[in-house]
Amino acid sequence: MNGSITDVPGVEVGQAEDLKALTGCTVVRVPDGAVAGVDVRGAAPGTRETDLLHPMNLVGEVHAVCLAGGSAFGLDAASGVMQALEEEKQGFDVGVGVVPIVPAAVLFDLTVGSADVRPDQAMGYQAAKRATDQPVQEGNVGAGCGATVGKFSGMKFAMKSGLGSASRRLKNGVIVGAVVAVNAVGEVRDPHTGKRLAGARDGQGGFLDYFERMEKTDPRNQAFQTNTTLAVVANNAKLTKAEANKAAQMAHDGLARTIVPIHTMNDGDTVFSLATGQREASVDVIGALSAEVLAEAVVRAVKSAQSVNGFPASSEYK
């Protein structure tokens, strides 16, 4: 066990980023395919190919999931992932070739680095080709490269966040893992102690209180609409498509335990769920464990981030 989502058999992760422009993408590959579900809770999502994950729809499995920065522009990265998978003949067989099934979601990071540089097809292709089952690199990488948190009082008070991953193995061999890019309007708290790990700074070494600030915030203020937390949870259980969607729904509890507020009108929070099908397990167990590992991954995303462009990281902010 390496402590990341790649502990789940059949799951690989590849990443690419532009450290100058502060944006990137993270690709979760499942070369043998996986039953998938999705749950979108934020009110400002940017997604691609999520409707096909509904249990009523045809396609039964996916071959990769792409998480990217760049706002809606970043959805282009998924085309590069498709290109890489098609070259390797991984996809839905349509008789005259294969069509890789690659759902995707994006977060808003345009105000952190260079607004005119976004994840594109070339970056998605690169990330897909880099995918391995090795431990996932965390921090200012992939889709978390330009991630920030604590923006409810504006970007000048925000802190750097990043990408994190975690996993858990049960005694019966069931393994659940998560990877998350944390880019929330809210603050991040330790789910066990309630301690603030990152959020809106008060300029005096502490944090602004979210609820007090919200009472003073003009509801027409657009300054903090630069968010969205994206995650993939994966497991080695045998789940139906409906159960995979339920696991994605339950996994959102991991975000609610660590990010305050979550699922706002200014977030597009999206969780994908992948099941690779090697073990028997209850969807209740998978969903509950998905929430646990996702909460852990959120904490790791914040703690592994590094300061950039005036945005201090949790590890460097006292």
From TrEMBL:
Gene3D superfamilies, per the entry: L-amino peptidase D-ALA esterase/amidase
Keyword Hydrolase in annotation: yes
GO molecular function, one term: aminopeptidase activity
Record keywords, A-Z: Aminopeptidase, Hydrolase, Protease
Similarity section: Belongs to the peptidase S58 family.
Annotated source species: Melghirimyces algeriensis
SUPFAM superfamilies: DmpA/ArgJ-like
Protein name: L-aminopeptidase/D-esterase
